[in-house]
Amino acid sequence: MTIDQLDARIVSLLTTEPRIGVLECSRRLGVARGTVQARLDRLAARGVITGYGPDIDPAALGFGVTAFVTLQIRQVAGHVPVADQLALIPEVLEAHTITGSGDMLCRVVARDNADLQRVIDLIVDVQGVVRTSSVIALDTPVSYRILPLVRAAGG
Amino acid sequence: MTIDQLDARIVSLLTTEPRIGVLECSRRLGVARGTVQARLDRLAARGVITGYGPDIDPAALGFGVTAFVTLQIRQVAGHVPVADQLALIPEVLEAHTITGSGDMLCRVVARDNADLQRVIDLIVDVQGVVRTSSVIALDTPVSYRILPLVRAAGG
DNA sequence: GGTGAAAGGTCATTAAG
DNA sequence: CTTAATGACCTTTCACC
Question: Domain B58-136 classified CATH 2.40.50.100?
């Protein structure tokens, strides 16, 4: 139920240089090309690799402000779930339910601080949201990364 | 300083079906292959597309617990910055400085709740961290997504 | 290991801002 | 006039059987 060193090295190599392909990857690791392909298929089948989509930087799209919004929720019977309504807002990049009484934590982006107000207003207008509390991300000294974890998991 | 509809459709298509390649992509959109290639090069040059790495699911690696840890920081002169020390912990997937007095917000993963305690202890031991406050993500009704934003940005 | 296919590059032509 | 799109051709390289 985990990965081995070869898996970790394959993922690691493909993460740092995604365009090299399976053949080049096998050459650099000194294994047969079929081995790499079989490993990748297995990782995809197990759900470890969920996709190869292009990574998009919201800031480069003009959404330079990132904020984390904590929602206090009052669940109302017979209404559209809060999460479904949040999913309709493009600026809500992810949403989690968190420990505590009916709370959620959302990552949102906006074009600027004024635009953030607009996005928060959209969230406040969601049925079931009682109130919100936001913190703005000023800097991201550690941006999302998975490689160290993969290496740690691979031994 | 933004993207147009064709850019959005290219990114959209490649995100939902990353394995189709440039040629197939151009066929489906009814444009020349060179156009798609030029657009992708431009998007990469502008920093909109930051990479094509395989997407890894931490849960499938055995790290099924996600938590958001807020740190209260006391900056100490002459020491290694807190962020640099956090970066050494594989379970810290990202870290942001946030509004407030020297605070940070980290996304961490752990194998289980007991393991989360170990990770938090690692964070507490970081020089300059005064105290921490954690919330555990129970569920993720909206997992990280960028497509709605891309479509919104593309017109 | 062989083979069909795609990527990546260049070019001249054409269209549109 | 500048920028972009197009279709053509070419070579290298890869994925699949």
Answer: no
